[in-house]
Amino acid sequence: MKRLVATVGVLAAVSLASATADDPKPGAGGVTVDKDKRTVTVAAKVAPRKLPHLEEKYPVELVAGWGHPKGKKAHEIVVAVDANPSEVHKGLEALGLKPGKPAKGPDAKAEGPAVNVFVEVPGEGGGPPKRLTLDKVLVDPKTKKPAPKMTFRFTGSVMSAADPTKPDDKKYGADLAGTLIALFPVTDETVLQTDWTMKEEKYLKLDVNPDVLPKEGSPVRLVIEAPKQ
Q1: Residue 28's pLDDT band (boundaries 50, 70, 90)?
Q2: Average pLDDT, stretch 105-132?
Q3: Contact, 14 vs 86, CB < 8 A?
Q4: pLDDT band at 163 (very low <50, low <70, confident <90, very high)
């Protein structure tokens, strides 16, 4: 059966607890929606780049997702979150954005409204927090050059069956995989993707720049900013 992109009506049936501008306290999973600033902020931690049970360190293919052992791609992420991806989807819809279409495969390209994505780290010497774009966070480990600038799109996730024996019982796919933001169209079970294709995936083998992020396990915040209307 053809997978469908999640819609507002489907997500309305999901119990979400994201905070809004009228309720500035973080909601479920540490998700905060600020309608005035047009941001969705997610509590996160700097993820380990090598998991102890794996023999090698894998290139970064996700910006954010569930950490190990819950996340299916925990070995490829920059920051780990506890939030269900659908909570972030709902927060972006609260800002007036409509999801597009996630991409998966060699000829696929993500569709949806563009958003800005930052990793917010503590300021030096107790100063104000600093927002880093992902081209500053990611580098080519061989050349030490920063990653190319990227455009993130609110694609929304396909609906997926948690139990293959029950193909008609579908859920928000990103909530099954724990994928929040993907760099390449290796999965359509995500909320945000860049507009990179699998052609870029062949030569962009990226890693985290340790000079700009705190040590692994340190608390940071993921900030998704919608363009002003």
Answers
A1: low
A2: 93
A3: yes
A4: confident
Question: H/E element holding 87?
Answer: helix 85-94
The single-letter DSSP state of residue 5 is: B
Give CA–CA dist 191/172, Å, rounded. Answer: 10
Q: Which helix (H) or strand (E) holds 222?
A: strand 219-225
Q: What are the distances in angstroms from CA 197 to CA 3, 138, 228?
A: 20, 17, 27
Q: How far is CA 142 from CA 67, 128, 202, 203, in A?
A: 26, 32, 15, 12
Residue 108 to residue 3: CA distance in whole angstroms: 15
Rg of the chain on CA atoms, in Å: 17
Top pLDDT among 27 and 13 is at 27
DSSP helix/strand/coil, 171:
strand
Pairing assessment for the beta strands 192-194 and 179-182 based on DSSP bridges? parallel
Is residue 166 pLDDT above 90, yes or no?
Answer: no
Q: Which amino acid is at 185?
A: P
End-to-end CA distance of the chain: 37
For residue 70, pLDDT over 60 is answered with yes
Distances (CA, A) of 128 to 43, 103, 121, 132: 17, 37, 9, 13
Q: What is the pLDDT of residues 30-46, one digit of tens each?
A: 999 999 999 999 999 99
User: What's the CA angle centered on 56, arms 51 and 62, to 5 degrees?
Assistant: 65
**Tokens coding 56:** 């090698």
pLDDT reading at 8 higher than 50: no
pLDDT of residue 27: 53
